[in-house]
Amino acid sequence: MIELRHLKxxxxxxxxxxxxxxxxxxxxxQSALSHxxxxxxDRLDCSLFIRKTKPICFTSAGQRILTLxxxxxxxxxxxxxDIARLAGGEAGRLxxxxxxxxxxxxxxxxxDHFRQNWPEVEMDLTTGFSFQPLPALARGDIDLVITAAPxxxxxxxxxPLFTYxxxxxxxxxxxxxxxxxxxxxDLEHQTLITYPVEQHRLxxxxxxxxxxxxxxxxxxxxxxxxxxxxxxxSGRGVSALPNWAIHQYIEQDYIxxxxxxxxxxxCTLYAAIRDDQKDADFMVDFLNTAKEITFRNxxxxxxx
Length: 304
What we know:
The chain has ten helices and eleven strands. The protein is an alpha/beta fold. The chain folds into three domains: 4-86, Orthogonal Bundle (Arc Repressor Mutant, subunit A); 90-161 and 267-303, Periplasmic binding protein-like II (D-Maltodextrin-Binding Protein, domain 2), CATH 3.40.190.10; 162-266, D-Maltodextrin-Binding Protein, domain 2. Strands 3, 4, 5, 6, 9, 10 and 11 form a seven-stranded mixed β-sheet that branches. A two-stranded antiparallel ribbon has the order 1-2. Strands 7-8 form a two-stranded parallel ribbon. Helix 1 (4-16) packs across helix 4. The longest helix is centred in the N-terminal third of the chain and has 27 residues, at 60-86. It is globular, with a radius of gyration of 22 Å. It starts with a helix and ends in a 7-residue tail after the last helix.
């Protein structure tokens, strides 16, 4: 009665917390997802979760299937890796470059998990802040670039990892706390704290300030997220950062944040790889591992 797709569906529902987001994660329409769950409930003759609860509240039967999913799905993944190795796809090189200061929080656990399953793959990690990583990727100097600024290039494929919201972080006493949303002109007389990256590569400039023709009064830089948070909390300026990067600081009541614009500034993070490595078994598994870990650990992200 219980199929593999049911285990994947309930796991996605637990991790996403809603039918809409769960459907996006497993690439189904919401109606198809609801139909699949209802079909399983009819087969089992019991409900799996309590409707109209947020976050999703599972029944005892639903919890039992989730326990089964936690046991079975990793076994399936491991078996698939073993088969890929037997087919001769175990060796390779994976030199990663990131254009995202705050990505270390999820990338390092991804690499640690991947190394355990693919010890034969040679790995290296560098940052792309002192050179142009996409031309280096095309030349074969590196193998994967984490970027939010895709550029159309022959032979390069962009695999979407997740979508996130860029929000404005500020101290709890800041004058802009009174605003429900931030408009570009609100930053004209503010000190904006950013990572030391060219402005045209920063979400806040590319998608918010530049289209409105607005510049902040001053731009100050810091390489570390924790240092930016200290500066923000002490009233030294404001900073536009990914929602997941500042989630813990908001939870600790250290700072607060507001959306950029009425609809918010939503961006997508991509893994750029060469077309000739798109189907390499170790590359496919690394991308799947990255998505699995980010959706398990990061708050506020959505399927891309």
